[in-house]
Known about the structure:
Blueprint: E1 3-6, E2 10-15, E3 19-25, E4 29-35, E5 40-46, H1 55-60, H2 66-79, E6 88-93, H3 106-120, E7 127-130, E8 136-141, E9 147-151, E10 154-157
Parallel strand pairs: 1-3, 6-7
Antiparallel strand pairs: 2-5, 3-8, 4-5, 4-6, 8-9, 9-10
Helix pairs in contact: 2-3
Amino acid sequence: MTNTVIGVGGMAVGRVGDTLVTYALGSCLGLTLYDPETRVGGLLHALLPQSKINPEKARDNPAMFVNTGVPSLFLAVYELGGVKERLVVKAAGCGAPLGAGTMFNTGDRNYTVLKKILWKNNVLLDAEDVGGSKARTVTLDLTTGKVTISSGGERREL
């Protein structure tokens, strides 16, 4: 039984008994995958939408970018025995912590890239808590599959 903290540009997968957590999602994408039958899953904390801005960094750390991190997370969960058709997929973050209309709109772009990848692969989000200006902490309990969002002193299940 392990509690794994995923930093910015990080990713982790685990099995029943494990808990995965990432803190302070602002414009970053937090994505969870969970297979309720095999009780395996993973959590991604992707910083930027497209790896084309730094292909070398993407090779060294695919989790840094949405377009390389999302496929990497799915593959890692498959390697643990997860099956695409059973996966519960949830997204959080993709906000505008500095306010809407900021120069790069990174949160919006992260969300757009995620949705395109999922759409192209016939995957739907089961739940999401995206946008806005609040920071979020995301916890995935791999025993129950429960995803918890903590923000502004409140906790709720996603």
